[in-house]
Amino acid sequence: MKGIYRRITLRKRFGILWVSTVSILLVLSGVFLIAATNTVAAAQEGDYTYIVSGSPLVATITGYTGIGGYITIPSTLGGYPTAAIGENAFFYCTALDYVTIPSSVTTIGVAAFEYCTSLASVTIPNGVTTIGELAFNSCGALISVTIPSSVTYIGNRTFNGCTSLVATNVDPGNPNYASIDGVLYDKAIATLIRHPSGKAGAFTVPNSITSIGNDAFDSCSYLTSVNISNSVTSIGDWAFSDCTSLTSVNISNSVTFIGDWAFYYCTSLTSITFSGLVAPVIVGANWIYGTDAGIRGHAYVASNFPAPGGNFNGLTMGAVIPGRLASVSPAIVSTILILVAVIAIAMVLVAAMFVMRKRKGKK
Fold first, then answer.
1. How would you classify the pairing of strands 248-251 and 223-227?
2. What is the four-CA torsion angle of 144, 210, 242, 91, rounded to 10 degrees?
3. Are 5 and 49 found together in one domain?
4. Does 362 reside within a domain?
5. Other C-beta atoms within 10 Å of 263: how many?
């Protein structure tokens, strides 16, 4: 009886194990089937390699094998809509001259066209919502670019190193970005995002700007001088790095933060003028690393900056700025006026007392 009981027990256990195994296999099969409907293996059509994914299925370009020149990216690949240009898809395609992107594309990926050094023109259609970090970095022949109203995100350093770029123009209907004279800002014109690398000469930051973003002027080799408005409170990391023609900067009294490497390798920079009486509270590491050895800082004698010859976060202070009443803070002006008034009243009283004593003496 014990033997029979054991065989029955073993059969039951085996049956349970078999059912469990089949169930797990069915679940895994379902997962694989679902995955199969969302992703198709990499494929190639013409000069383009791509993958298909998503629901509904769409194509993402992963590479380009063509000879360059003038190209129009196809709106479908393998019968699927071309929805994205993937990361590094055209990276270092130095023979690429002109690119037209179809309206089906919504995403231009990270470094998608980075180092396409001959790329002189790119048409970004209305429908693209995302332009990834470094997407057009170091496209040295690119002269201008238009950001359509559909774009809601532009990654960091997207147009850095585009040494011929003189204008980034934003459609007025864009909800997140704006441009003035080819310079890229946020919609509120509160953050300066990117000054084109090829734009030359002096530049005055608009009065509404409160923040100069990270890398905002990075490698702007033709920039000669900058006047930072009284509304700016922060200058981001690497903001003016490698601006090799920049000779002078005027930093307003409102600036409290200067980021790391802010003026890194500005090799022609010889003068930084601080127009405020209070020095910036936070100054980042190596903010003037690689600048000319003769660079000097200049501030008002009434400010809390070090005296001439003193050191301000690695910057040797030079000659003071001649003082002007207009440069003094309103509180100090009020104090001075009160003191002048008190002295004037005291002088009048002394004079009156002198006259009265003199009259008494005559009597």
1. parallel
2. -50
3. no
4. no
5. 27
206's tokens: 């608009």
Q: Would 352 be classed as within a structural domain?
A: no
- pLDDT tens digit string along 103-162? 999 999 999 999 999 999 999 999 999 999 999 999 999 999 999 999 999 999 999 999
For residues 79 and 124, state if they share a domain. yes
Structural domain including 37 reads 1-41
47 domain-assigned: yes
CA–CA dist 297, 319 (Å, integer): 8
- Report d(CA 99, CA 119) in Å as an integer: 8
**Residue ranges in the chain modelled with pLDDT below 50:** 1-37, 325-329, 333
Strands 80-85 and 107-108, how do they pair?
parallel
| Whole-number pLDDT of residue 345 | 78
> Is the domain of 35 the same as that of 85?
no
Does 34 share its domain with 104?
no
Q: What is the pLDDT of residue 36?
A: 44
Is residue 354 in some structural domain?
A: no
User: CB–CB of 262/240 below 8 Å?
Assistant: yes
Cα first-last separation, the chain: 150
Same domain, 61 and 160: yes
User: In terms of pTM, does the model score above 0.90?
Assistant: no
